[in-house]
């Protein structure tokens, strides 16, 4: 598939990319090369091939999803201007 300079200019405008007019033929050729490669990929027979998550067959590492308090209450409250009973103390805002 061949892309002309007018189409390349329209694509650049839609993508909000400023392209100087003298660079439009190069951009059009690059778009044409990309579309030719996509056409080559469409010719590949993929019947019976399962989609892959990664190019290397491996399972994702998992950890136990356990709820904790973080174990660092003292560090969290160390720089608080006012902390009481293990919590941040703030001024009352609702009467």
Automatic annotation (TrEMBL):
BP term (GO), one: regulation of translational fidelity
Catalysed reactions listed for this entry: L-aspartyl-tRNA(Asn) + L-glutamine + ATP + H2O = L-asparaginyl-tRNA(Asn) + L-glutamate + ADP + phosphate + 2 H(+); L-glutamyl-tRNA(Gln) + L-glutamine + ATP + H2O = L-glutaminyl-tRNA(Gln) + L-glutamate + ADP + phosphate + H(+)
Keywords assigned by UniProt, alphabetized: ATP-binding, Ligase, Nucleotide-binding, Protein biosynthesis, Transferase
EC number: 6.3.5.-
One GO MF term: transferase activity
Xref: Gene3D superfamilies: Glu-tRNAGln amidotransferase C subunit, N-terminal domain
EC top class, as a word: ligase
Coiled-coil ranges from the UniProt annotation: none
Superkingdom in the source lineage: Bacteria
Family: Belongs to the GatC family.
Subunit structure of this chain's protein: Heterotrimer of A, B and C subunits.
The protein's role, per its UniProt record: Allows the formation of correctly charged Asn-tRNA(Asn) or Gln-tRNA(Gln) through the transamidation of misacylated Asp-tRNA(Asn) or Glu-tRNA(Gln) in organisms which lack either or both of asparaginyl-tRNA or glutaminyl-tRNA synthetases. The reaction takes place in the presence of glutamine and ATP through an activated phospho-Asp-tRNA(Asn) or phospho-Glu-tRNA(Gln).
NCBIfam families documented for this protein: gatC
Protein name per Swiss-Prot or TrEMBL: Aspartyl/glutamyl-tRNA(Asn/Gln) amidotransferase subunit C
């Amino acid at each position: 598939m061949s892309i002309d300079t007018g189409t390349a200019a329209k694509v650049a405008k839609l993508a909000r990319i400023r392209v100087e007019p003298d660079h439009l033929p190069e951009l059009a050729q690059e778009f044409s090369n990309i579309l030719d490669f996509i056409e080559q990929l469409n010719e590949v027979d993929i019947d019976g091939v399962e989609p892959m998550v990664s190019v290397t067959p491996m399972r994702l590492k998992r950890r136990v999803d356990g709820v904790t308090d973080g174990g660092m209450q003292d560090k969290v409250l160390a720089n608080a201007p006012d902390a009481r009973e293990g919590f941040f103390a703030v001024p009352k805002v609702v009467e």
